[in-house]
Amino acid sequence: MKRKMILAVVAAFVAASALAHEGEEHAQPPGQEAQAGPAGTVVLSDAAIQNLGIRTAKATLGPRAQSISVNGVVELLPERQAIVTSPATGRVAAIAVKIGERVEKGKVLLTVQPIFVGSSPVPIASPLSGHVTRQNVVLGQAITPDTALMEIGDMSQVLVRGVLYETADVGQIKIGQTVRVSSPLIGTGSMGGVIQRVDSVFERDSRTFNVYAVIENAERKLLAHMYVLLSIDVSPPTDVLTVPSRAILGEDGAHFLFVRNGDIFERRNVKLGARFGPDREILEGVFPDEDVVIVGNYQLQFARSQAPAAKKDAGAR
Fold first, then answer.
1. Rounded to an integer, what distance in angstroms lies between the CA atom of residue 107 and that of residue 98?
2. Which of 206, 234, 262 marks a domain boundary?
3. What is the pTM of this model?
4. Any domain includes 17
5. 218 domain-assigned
6. What's the chain's Rg over C-alpha atoms?
7. Residue ranges in the chain whose pLDDT is less than 50
8. CB burial class (10 A; 0-12, 13-18, 19+) of residue 208?
9. Same domain? 41 vs 110
10. What is the pLDDT of residues 86-124, one digit of tens each?
């Protein structure tokens, strides 16, 4: 009698365990996230997809050049900025513009009253077209010809200074190479340009090497002193399959990502190749035009399927 009761309890436990696991994609322990394993899928409801904030991007096959990515900072070109000064000693009598205002070459910026008795007010005009980036004086302030009254900058074309450290990458940088500039502040795309100049020596104290790229900036997306990522193409372009780097999870050679097909998310192990700025080459595991998850992919590791049980019940009826 006791033996029959024990067998009944065991059978009930096994059946309950099977039902509990049916249709679920269980997460690996945190310490095993990066381990390679058989590809799995998880099916999510629309509500679950929305709650996870799932976003995807296309795996893209196209001509890409091998690149070097470095941190950069936006600067004004020396020939596109000016410090405004007065030809005479005097006091500021009037200020006609504001910081950030667009001015044309020849527009009066302020008026100076010379200290000499009987002298007429002297209008000070802008030496170039651009924006007022700094105003250093106020009404009535005494000035001399050495006083920097205002600064004007033309940001339709800017200089991005990339900083490299003492590595072999320095030897691959050449004037005329194509570059791309990216930043969360300018959206998901990038802005193109070319290397215009490079340092001839390393900085003595920091042991850094500077490269300078000219970027067309007609829409003023790049502002002076903004930090950006500068990607420098150092090889001829060839057709390469790439995905955004943020789609990739794992480490130590065991990398994976999630491919979306409707409400189905398939985990795939991938083999990685070269870096191309914010993107990464995929050698195995993904096909062109497939949708890879770039936001919510980390949470997908621990998600459980929402739909299979409902579909099974519908089939039974």
1. 13
2. 234
3. 0.61
4. no
5. yes
6. 31
7. 1-39, 307-317
8. middle
9. no
10. 999 999 999 999 999 999 999 999 999 999 888 999 999
